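Forwarding the complex inputs:
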Amino acid sequence: MKLSFKSFLILLMFGLSLAIVSCQQGSGNSALKSSTAEKVFVAPGEYDEFYAFVSGGFSGQLAVYGLPSGRLFKIIPVFSVDGEKAWGFNEETKPMLETSYGFIPWDDSHHPDISQTNGVLDGRWVFINGNNTPRIARIDLTTFETVEIIELPNSAGNHSSPYVTDNTEYVIAGTRFGVPVPQRDISINDYKGNFKGALSFIKIDQETGGMDLSFQILMPGFDYDKAHPGRGKSDGWMFFTTYNVEEANTLLEINASQRDKDFIAAVNWKKAEEYIKAGKFRTMKTKYAHNVYNDETHSATSTMKTEVRILDPGNLPGLVYFLPMPKSPHGCDVDPSGEYIVGSGKLSANVTVHSFPKMMKAIKEKKFDGESYGIPILKFEDVLAGVVEQPGLGPLHTEFDGKGNAYTSFFISSEVVKWKLGTWEVIDRKPTYYSVGHVMIPGGNSQKPFGKYLLAMNKITKDRFLPTGPEVTQSAQLYDITGDKMELLLDFPTVGEPHYAAGIPADLIKAKSKKFFKLDENKHPYATKSQDDVKVVRDGKDVHIYMTTIRSHFAPDNIEGVKVGDRVYFHVTNIEQDYDVPHGIAMIGANTSELLIMPGQTETFVWEPKEVGVWPFYCTDFCSALHQEMQGYVRVSPRNSKIKLSWSLDGE
Amino acid sequence: MKLITLLSILSLSFLIACGGGEKKAEQEAAKPANPNGLTDFEMEHGIGPVKEELQLGAIDPAKVAAGEKTFKSLCAPCHKLDKRLVGPAQRYTADRRSPEFILNMIMNPDEMTKRHPTGKKLLAEYLAPMSNQNLTLDQAKEVLDYLRSVAKEGHEKNIEAAPIFSGQQK
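Prediction (whole assembly, two chains):
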């Protein structure tokens, strides 16, 4: 076919215009995507705006992410052993995992909450609960390490915890399971009336952060699911959602959902303090572990406590009231002003909001609708502030943006719904992928939310990421909530189940983050602060090696005179005094993990050599260009050997 | 269409790159700079918190004692006096470098081994980067007096100097 020049030109123009159109379309799409990507892009070398502390659920740990990037910075070992950091493996941290049941290497960590001052995040500590063997841990935000764990007696399934009051006076923890208190051998069918639910009030030392189980309120044996302290005008109160007010003990899936309404328990903790002061408590014998890590000895101690003070609410007027709440409420959330108590009945189609001032009025006028175990029940209509009608299915948890809006997760319909406090109108809804559990806005449970992002934590992620066999990754999703409409910005995988999270502006923490431990403040009993002081000491079958590390050698690095059947303690002090220079150490055949020792720190592992020979050890953390040369040997001789203990470095 | 756009972008970027290059060349021609933009002071006395020449007095025995203690705890793992170890022998450092250089090297080794020609040369020789042991200026001055005292002792006792660089004549 022959084309004239003119028709060629026409064709060319046509082709060009097609190209232009396709270019425009292409650039249009990518512009939209790139503007979303820009919102979560933190350029290499730059910092995120927020820290997010995301619990690991059944991993038992607490992960630290940056927002908006979703980058993972650290996994803080809390309730589960961690071979990477020797948590629960070295001699120093083993006491942290002691309980009244002995050493427990795992738990289920659920709800991190950051300390507050005047109802505002202060960035001192994060508290988190161990669900299975009831415990509360405190993480120090200068070292990002777990520094204290306290066990809770009389509790089982420590779920409605830990929640921090306006000035961190208390960290409060409720039990999920009703159990016999004290524990005893009775028929499970005797549940009703015999099983109790303990609400624990842990007093916080404002100087040290130290936790002390001040008292427990022994409630009826309902299931206490979630909790929230009053804020501002409702400060001094604590609200717990309950389910199973039927007190069923089997097939709770059906039997705990018979009644139209369960309760929110409103506890006046300032009144509880008065009763304690007035001596209206009884002291109960019990057993619980209290474990404290010390940053100067770099070691933990575990103490068994034997008593707890009990308040019985049925005999103590004004201590607890019940507010009816539709079907099996889970979330129990107080807005930043402290006026509204939002209950999310997870089998209800509505979100019910109670009013704190109305509650106070009804209490004052004694308008009760009967009682349960001596605890007055208020009338639903008298305390109701409003209802968000038909927002979705399976409301679960609500956080606030500080601009009059609330954001509720809906597990069954997989969405986050934004609604307005006071008018109860739904403003926006966005899908989650999939089955969202809790949501988090930094400061979103305090008086001062930083309402820029919302993090949704999902229970199901199938088809969202590359498959990895039957077990797929868990995930969180980030939404921009600065506009009227929410905007999904990012999916990112998480470690363990991202059950719940607490977020805080990075500026409130990052400057306080410790860089290294000072060697002259090291009070570890086996510290070696100078290479001149290294030694090996025999004490019967125990051999103590006082060792130092610096880039890139161990001192000593040749040890002889160890015998089969000895218990060899490697007490290793990292004598570096600079930021970001940890050293590791691992010994062939040692039945424990490596050590990962921060500058200025001393850690210890035990090795029990079983065979004669010359056995090597080496540095596990890449410390310098000569890291691979950082190694040494221990000679192990037969039990009856006469070889004397000796040690050296470079022949000296 | 796409090709033309691409070509114009490319040629534009060439122009920019070329323009930048000429400008840089001009600056270099104007002043024969020290490497890495170091000042003359930094060339002689190192990069770090000490930015002026110090007036040193006589060696202070109290400082020498304190400095020896710090040296043994924080420096000795890598430095002997009369023998090359992880780092160079320290017997005659006080003869070899200015006091300001010594203080800056102790207090700012990261930058010294990255930007200063002497620091870079030392790193290339020893390969282990010198640790920042976070001494205070007072502690570093004590170590300085200790180094001055051991140099003095070396001269008095005729102690042989260990070579700093391999292949160097003893």
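Helices of chain B lie at 2-30, 40-45, 61-75, 93-96, 99-107, 109-115, 117-126, 137-157.
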